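Re: the 130-residue chain
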Amino acid sequence: MKSEQALFGERFRAALKSAGYPESPSEISRLLPRFEGDPATPQAVSSWLHGKSIPRARSIRALAAMLLMDPATLQYGHAALGAKVRESQIAFRVNARDQHAIDAFIALPARKRKLVRDFIDTLSETEKKR
């Protein structure tokens, strides 16, 4: 039987892959405080990834926020008992990194959103010509 730490490591790696994040301890340790997690060294994050330890609750909540998932699902592998019933997921999914970029775009002032849209249009036209 696998240890709780090993099972957490598997869930964590799978969630990172699903969300489009690399398994980079240095990048994860850099991003953790942005999502209200406790600062962690790359060595600590590496031990989480390799199933040698489990982060504290605050860091689990931050990782779950970063990965756009329920903290209980990340920590235990299932949603917390008594969780709200959700509708079935639609086929289209945006990974966590893209969702954070979309959220940042929406938070921009109208003038800057127009610049980003114009830039995307220019990039799209370049790709169509190839």
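DSSP finds seven helices and no strands in the chain.
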